[in-house]
Amino acid sequence: MANNAIFARLANLWTGFVSLWVSDVEKAHPEIAYQNAIASMIEKYTQLKAATGAIIARRQEITARLDSACRYADLLDKGAVKLTDAGSAGIFSDITYLNTRKVIFSFSDT
User: Fold this and answer.
1) What are the φ/ψ torsions at residue 97 (nearest 5 degrees)?
2) How far is the C-alpha of 67 from the C-alpha of 59, rounded, in Å?
3) 8 A C-beta contact, residue 76 and residue 69
4) What is the pLDDT of residue 94?
5) What is the mean pLDDT of each run of 10 residues along the chain (110 residues)?
6) CA–CA separation, 70 vs 104, rounded Å?
7) SS3 90
8) DSSP letter, residue 94
9) C-alpha to C-alpha distance for 103 and 76, rounded to whole angstroms
10) Which of 5, 12, 26, 50 has its CB 3.0 to 4.6 Å from that of 33, i.e. a possible disulfide?
């Protein structure tokens, strides 16, 4: 156990020396630090843009499914579709139609 503590301290000492050397290099050449910061921010922006695109695509998919469900509920309400046809709705694994014009949908994972 004592050996692990010694190696941990030596690793911390080495890391400290390396960070001091890097900070001295950055002081001598500040454009390196600026360039690294800019590259880091560009990478984060790219990741954020990809994540935002995925969220927007998912929102559009869910909105389309909700609109389809509302249209199906209207058809149920008008009697154009029988409740026994609920299994043919495609994207829904279960549909429960209540008399109060509320429809409870259980979406399948597919």
Assistant:
1) -105, 125
2) 12
3) no
4) 46
5) 81 90 84 89 95 93 89 76 52 46 50
6) 10
7) coil
8) E
9) 10
10) 26
pLDDT at 85: 47
pTM tops 0.90, yes or no = no
Other residues' Cβ atoms within 10 Å of the Cβ of residue 68? 15
> In 3-state terms, what secondary structure has residue 48?
helix
Q: Which residues contact 22 (CB under 8 A, 6 or more apart)?
A: none
Question: Could you give the 3-state DSSP secondary structure of residue 85?
Answer: helix
DSSP single-letter state for residue 15? H
Q: Which of 78, 71, 79, 81 is CA-nearest to residue 105?
A: 71
- Residue with tokens 């935002």, as numbered in its chain: 52
In the chain, where the domains are located = 2-107
Q: Which two structure tokens, joined as six digits, stand for 52? A: 């935002």
